[in-house]
Amino acid sequence: MIEQKTIPLDEYTRSPSYWAIVLRRFSRDKVAMFALAIIILLFLVAVFAPYIAPADPLKGSMLRRLRPIGTPGLPLGADELGRDMLSRLIYGARLSLFMGITPVAIAFVIGSSIGIAAGYLGGLFNSLTMRTNDIFYAFPSVLLAIALSGALGAGVTSGLLSLTIVFIPPIARVAESVTTQVRKLDYVEAAKASGANNFTIIRVHVLGNVLGPIFVYSTSLISVSMILAAGLSFLGLGVKPPEPEWGLMLNTLRNAIYVQPWLAALPGVMIFMTSIAFNLVSDGLRSAMDIKS
Amino acid sequence: MTQQPLVKISDLHVLFKGQKNVCAVNGLSLNLLPGQVLGILGESGSGKSVTLKALLRLLPAHKTEIRGLIEVLGRNVMSLNAADLASFRGGIASMIFQDPMLALDPVYTIGDQIAEVVTRHHGLKRRDAMAYALDMLKKVRIPSPERRLKAYPHEISGGMRQRAMIALALAGNPKLLLADEPTTALDASVQMQILLLLRELQKESGMGMIFVTHDIGVAVEICDVVAVMYAGQIVETGTIRDIVKDPKHPYTKGLLAANLHGAERGKRLETIPGSPPLLESAPTSCSFAPRCAYTQAVCRLKAPEAVTISKNITVRCILETNMNS
Description:
The complex is a heterodimer.
Chain A: H1 18-27, H2 30-47, H3 49-52, H4 85-121, H5 123-137, H6 141-152, H7 156-183, H8 186-193, H9 198-234, H10 246-252, H11 261-289
Chain B: E1 7-16, E2 22-32, E3 37-41, H1 48-55, E4 64-72, E5 75-76, H2 82-91, E6 93-96, H3 100-103, H4 110-122, H5 126-139, H6 145-149, H7 158-170, E7 176-180, H8 188-205, E8 208-213, H9 216-222, E9 225-230, E10 233-239, H10 240-245, H11 250-257, E11 307-308, E12 314-315, H12 318-324
Parallel strand pairs in B: 3-8, 3-9, 6-7, 7-8
Antiparallel strand pairs in B: 1-2, 1-4, 4-5, 9-10, 10-12, 11-12
Helix pairs in contact in B: 4-5, 4-7, 5-7, 7-8
């Protein structure tokens, strides 16, 4: 038999917590870290927009309409009303990120509550909620968002609300399916056998195992939300001019596409970059959370 | 001297409703005295695990129909309210599962999981609960318990996991431990250690134990009394000695014959021909009759009564009925 050394209690290296392991694995993922850096940069830009932007994003000038990229004093040119493009893109990050994240965050809370409840309770309650949920699936998400915000009227709040409604069903569906899986596992039964009530089981064993996957799925929706929000603004439903927002900018610049194609594409490039960054981070998070692999 | 039985089950029927009904348990009666270890022996699908789960009321209420009486320490388990049920589970009766990898929550440390049970049943603060959990781990003889306390289930070996599972089940100081094939998922050398540990812990605390297994060798190691189950019924009860030495029921004989001891090289191993019934409806005749070597016409007509042969032995077979009348 191997001799056992007695090590004093505090000298034991505490085996790192789940999230510490996830974080460490995530930090080794170069692609995800790069994407995360882009997102952090965008956030900083959005927060410090007034200090970074060289000019007022709302102040136009008829004299500098549609100046190309690289014009002296206008590094990224000027839009169809002669407003500084760089400043508008910088300020636009605020609303675009806000419209991308907020609906998903709200839908995460509501959708996972619905889904977890349905998945855990099962039976009739599950059928009722999930079939109601399915009704929303009958509409393509873009159409649903347009219909809802069309009915609610233009504006940031109604855009936010309609996007939230669009994202609740898919999140609820994912939450329901993972909860149903977890509910049937032995450790839930073991917890029951040791006297845990439903509330404890949901709070400890279901939430602990289910929130991760739902969270990962939700982060992948942020990019969709950004694109949808941009789409709503593009159609004149979300953000109202002259507010700088990337989707709206894409819309107002579309007539200039024959005159200044590069300029007109800039907001689209920003949307593309941001959404791909969110997607990559969500991918990295998913593989980092799959600890047993 | 009559002791109050720890567990008293009489005429238990469990029916799973669904597209096809399954009569998993059909008129099962058993008694367990405090400090006794009862082994329930039987092949897969004979209703062993279902009986255990019914004892803790773990079967889904809307899909199962349970009839009969289940009493633990004189209290009717079926009529407990939610609060009493919660303190009953884990506090009076507790359960160990077959596969500890599945029965431990992968996202919490061993210590957290035991401490959770401790706070529930002893009302301790988290710090004290952790100290209690550490004591429990020492009790189940996990090597370097301080470190295991902070380990996740996937970081420790199968044997240690089962020890942790036992610690978890015993954390509420139960009077009755239900063990659902706790050694099946383990390799042979670890199996023995776990059996010895269970036996030792049982002796120490004087709790009663119901040990479900399909391995007669395991039953011999740990049980005082054995109940052999077939098709949702107990076909033979007796002390482990009596059953192994002199099995009465043809099914028990078949089970005992179906082992590797004395098997000769190149010869076929002995088996019981046929397979267990599907149990879509409750049996009206002897369930074992289609596979039995001693079947008589009577066996297919009516179900045999349980016959008490001697003080400890009860058999449900027409042969014994005839012999005694």
